[in-house]
Amino acid sequence: MNIRAVIVEDSRLARNELKELIKKHDGIELLGEAENVDLGYELIQKERPDLLFLDINMPEKDGFELLEMLDDVPITVFTTAFDEYAIKSFEYNALDYLLKPINEKRFAMALDKVKAKLAGNKDGIIKTEQLSYNSQIFIKDGESCWLVRIRDISHFEIVGNYTRVFFEDKKPLLYRSLNQVEEKLPEQSFFKANRQQIVNTNFINNVVPWFNGKLKLQMKNGEEIEVSRRQSYIFKDKMSL
Fold first, then answer.
1. What positions does the domain HTH LytTR-type occupy (predicted)?
2. pLDDT in tens, 93-140
């Protein structure tokens, strides 16, 4: 088995230590390294590795933000000097969590876990499954974090390369396109009203006929969302008996 790996770590010393550990094991190929999240994102998109060694505490953007940017997440082993991130790391489906300085025995144990994972998953990629209506998602926007149930989100709205999430009185941004968000939402409860917005149909308070065969949705939180003409026909069909 040949494991294709990358390192995303801001410390050159820590990167060098990881590379020395990797050299001691057959069957693992280091494809590249990056010193920050943005370069790490480009490296992962280019190489599509099986395994990601990822530091958590990095300047500007942290390791959790990198995982949120990815559609297909490699098997991830966190490397950090701070043990307070341990529980949160497993919310991101991390396979293992290595505290610096990393000893050889602990590193070998992590690789054994990776090999076992890859043995049952030949492409090494963890595909994100479609969420259920009761699923929770983790959202980090700046210094603020939330665990939000899908059912509590009224709608999503595209903002450049980001998607704004509306729940309660909050409007944080996700580093995801609207299409990427739509792929993961439960189809029975969410509807793409137009190219810019997806609505939770359980938050619709009223539907009003609009111009040129279009509809306007009046939401329970006071928002009004216009449905495109094409989507208005689909909406009528979806919501009819």
1. 137-241
2. 678 888 888 999 999 999 998 988 887 654 434 444 568 888 888 888
